[in-house]
Each structure stands twice: as structure tokens, then as C-alpha cells.
Design brief:
The complex is a heterodimer.
Chain A lengths: L3 E4 L6 E4 L6 E4 L6 E5 L3 H21 L3 E5 L2 E5 L1 H10 L3 H30 L7 H11 L5 H16 L3 E4 L1 H19 L2 H14 L1
Antiparallel strand pairs in A: 1-2, 3-4, 5-6, 5-7
Helix pairs in contact in A: 1-3, 1-6, 2-3, 3-4
Chain B lengths: L7 E3 L6 E3 L7 E3 L6 E3 L5 H21 L3 E5 L2 E5 L1 H10 L3 H30 L6 H14 L5 H12 L6 E5 L1 H19 L3 H5 L2 H6 L1
Helix pairs in contact in B: 1-3, 1-6, 2-3, 3-4, 3-6
Classes of the chains: A alpha+beta, B alpha+beta.
Chain lengths: 204, 208
């Protein structure tokens, strides 16, 4: 592949990229927006990171997240309990939003990254690659675990004054998970996989 | 060369460059992924305006109504967004006060102001400072989801504090409205088509 043509999503400029093997950020010459990032051995990195993310996601939801004690009364919470209590109080809209943005969408994204990059790592392009890539593209802004992390910090400060709060194993797993997800976000370059699919279809 | 001038458009799902019919409202099917491809997002201006106006309206009850009610044996205390910020300021947690103030007040207002500014400049074909406008648009996309912090705080507090008569936290109506503001402004930023800024003719830009 000697030349690669992309179209800037911000300003609609057609950009021909000559040096496609260069590693780093490619920017639009007209408006300066990021076209894509080219990372070395993206597949291997994404495969490793998505396995790590799945394990951390499991740990986050399995172990106790936060415990809170007031005058001998103890309560535990993790991601699901907040949804359960919101539904109990008939706050369906809030419950649904929390369920989707902190559990369902992040979980699906991790699993889809894994089932996409596991076959790619073994030099096989799965038949569902196109639908997976499309879902990953449109769900990007709706996974909000990084925002949730800030929410955890704020509530910790708020609750410290009401009683004693105990951070569980999960909090640590969750903190690492947020960083792993951020690393995945900057490593993932869908352009590379779409090109792989193109070349595969041409050769057939 | 811009894609629209060559009769080309990019697929929004897979970034494939697609040959388009000559009419500007023409529709193509992406040969690579099968998604519908258009030159510009359909009714982008109208939809963005509708979502922006709806968010502004919802933002009023989101600030007036309490985000949560704290029931303790001493009585019930209701917190709005502003009273939460003031509470943190009084108790000396300046960092947390700043986080809440930025996430719940500065971010939504900035997002709405930027979108209104971009919509007006596209509708009146004001083409100056295109790169600056592009940066503003990217900023709205970047900061969009961070306003969810306050909603998450309410959810975490509800999950942890439920000791019957001793102390209990319940969600207020304000949380619902605030959630709607966050979601609607995020969709509004997605519906806006940044390429419209660059479609404005250059001779217009020099006149301003």
C-alpha cells in the first residue's frame, strides 16, 4: 500500500497520505484535525488490552465497590446496586442511563474489541468484523466509565462527613480499568482494519 | 480539493470515500459497509436547533429543582446543583466544589453557547475563523459527557445511603432534567455537521 486516501471529517478535504508506514498522528493539512493515529502492532496491543479490560471489568463488578457505615449500620454498593435502588424508587430514566453508560455499553465494547482482535491476531478476518466496527464507531461517546470515576471521587468526599466509607477491592480494579480503556481508545485505529477487510475482499 | 467538489462523500460508519449522485441531496449506499451515505447530515441545522432549544428549556428545572433529598433523623435537606457547590465551598472542599461547578454549570452552558454560535454562523453564512470554529466544535464533542458527573454522584449516594429512618438519600426531579440536558446536548453536538462551516464561500469570509 503506497498511498492511502482519506477524507477529513471536519472540513471535507481529501487528503492523500504518502508515507503510510509512518507511526504517529496524521493531521488534516487544511484544518489541522486528527485524521487517525497509526500505531505499531495495533492488533497485538488491542488484543492484550482488551483481555486486561475484560478481567478488570469482571473484578470491578464482582468484588464489593464501596461500603458505607453510619452508627453500626453497614451498606455495600457496586454498579448494579445503584441501578437496583434507582429502579426501586421508580427512577427508571436515571436507572436506565446508569445501566447503559456504566455497565452495558462498556461491557459490550470490551467484548466486541476482544472478539474482533482475537481472530485478527491469528491472521483471520471474522465475518462479523464490519458490524462490530460499526457498533464500536457509534458507541464511542456513550461509554462513560471515566466520568463515573470522577463521580466516585466526589461522592467519597461527600460521604466522608456522614459516616465512615470503605473503598473495596473493586475501586482499585476500576481505577486501572479506566486507564486501560483510555489506552485502548488511543490505540484503536479503525482505518487499518477497514483496509485489511478491503484487501481481503479484493484478493478473493 | 474538497470531497463535495469532486462528487464524493465519506461514509459516516466506515470512512470509505463513496462516489455520489450529482444532486446535493443525493443518497448513496456505501459499497464497503452498506450504510447510507449523504453529502451532509440530513436536516442537521433544524435538528441541532431543536435539540439545543429543548436542552435550554430542560436546563431551567434542572437548576431550580433539587438533585437529591437527604432524609436524616434531624430532618430533610434538599440539594440543588448550586446549593451543592455552596455546601462544598463552606466545608472547605474547594477542589470538589470546582469539579461540580465546572461539570454541571460551566460545561453545559459552554456547550449550548458554542452550538448556538456555530448554528447562527452557518445560517448567516459567516465564514471567518473557520479553524477556531472547528476547535470550538471539537471542544463540545470532547467535554460533552463530563457533565454526567453530578448524575453519577446522585446514583452512588442513593446506592450507599439507605438506612431507613436514620439516614436516607432519594433522587430529586432535578436529576432527571439534568440527565436529559446532558443526553440532548450530546445528541445535538452529534447532529451538527462541522463540514457546513467549511462549505461557507470564501468571498463571504473576506467581507466580514
Amino acid at each position: 500500500m503506497s498511498e492511502h486516501i482519506v477524507c477529513c471529517h471536519e472540513c471535507d478535504e481529501i487528503v492523500a497520505i504518502k508515507d503510510t508506514n509512518r507511526v504517529g498522528r496524521f493531521k488534516c493539512p487544511v484544518c489541522g484535525s486528527l485524521l487517525f493515529r497509526h500505531k505499531k502492532s495495533m492488533t497485538e496491543k488491542m488484543y492484550a488490552l482488551s483481555i486486561a479490560a475484560l478481567i478488570l471489568f469482571g473484578a470491578t463488578n464482582y468484588f464489593p465497590f464501596l461500603s458505607f457505615e453510619v452508627l453500626g449500620n453497614l451498606s455495600h454498593a457496586n454498579f448494579f446496586t445503584s441501578v437496583i435502588y434507582l429502579v426501586k424508587e421508580q427512577e427508571y430514566l436515571l436507572g436506565l442511563a446508569i445501566l447503559m453508560t456504566t455497565i452495558v455499553i462498556p461491557f459490550f465494547r470490551i467484548v466486541l474489541f476482544l472478539i474482533l482482535f482475537a481472530p485478527l491476531y491469528h491472521k483471520h478476518i471474522p465475518s462479523y468484523a464490519k458490524s462490530v466496527l460499526k457498533f464500536l464507531e457509534f458507541s464511542t461517546p456513550w461509554g462513560m466509565l471515566d466520568v463515573f470515576l470522577i463521580g466516585v471521587f466526589v461522592s467519597l468526599v461527600k460521604l466522608v462527613k456522614m459516616g465512615s466509607i470503605i473503598a473495596g477491592t473493586s475501586v482499585w480494579a476500576f481505577g486501572v480499568l479506566v486507564f486501560v480503556l483510555a489506552a485502548m481508545q488511543v490505540t484503536f485505529n479503525p482505518h487499518q482494519i477497514w483496509e485489511l477487510i478491503d484487501r481481503n475482499e479484493e484478493s478473493r | 480539493m474538497r470531497a463535495i467538489e469532486c462528487g464524493l462523500a465519506t461514509c459516516s460508519a466506515c470512512h470509505h470515500i463513496v462516489k455520489m449522485p450529482p444532486r446535493l441531496d443525493g443518497v448513496s449506499i456505501c459499497p464497503r459497509c452498506g450504510e447510507e451515505v449523504v453529502y451532509r447530515k440530513k436536516n442537521s441545522i433544524e435538528h441541532t436547533w431543536a435539540l439545543v432549544i429543548a436542552s435550554i428549556l430542560f436546563y431551567i428545572p434542572a437548576n431550580m429543582l433539587p438533585m437529591m433529598h437527604v432524609h436524616t433523623f434531624a430532618g430533610t435537606q434538599s440539594d440543588t446543583i448550586i446549593s451543592g457547590v455552596i455546601y462544598f465551598l463552606h466545608s472547605g472542599s474547594y477542589l470538589i466544589a470546582a469539579v461540580i461547578f465546572i461539570a454541571s454549570i460551566i460545561v453545559p452552558i459552554t456547550k449550548l453557547l458554542i452550538l448556538v454560535y456555530l448554528l447562527i454562523s452557518v445560517q448567516f453564512q459567516k465564514g471567518a475563523n473557520k479553524v477556531k470554529k472547528k476547535r470550538l466544535y471539537q471542544l463540545t464533542e470532547l467535554i460533552g459527557k463530563w457533565s454526567m458527573v453530578d448524575v453519577y454522584v446522585v446514583a452512588i449516594m442513593i446506592a450507599l445511603v439507605h438506612f431507613g429512618g436514620l439516614s436516607e438519600i432519594k433522587a430529586g426531579q432535578g436529576a432527571n432534567y439534568f440527565l436529559l440536558v446532558v443526553i440532548l446536548t450530546m445528541i445535538a453536538a452529534m447532529r451538527f455537521d462541522p463540514r457546513l462551516i467549511w462549505d461557507i464561500k470564501e468571498d463571504n469570509a473576506t467581507r466580514i
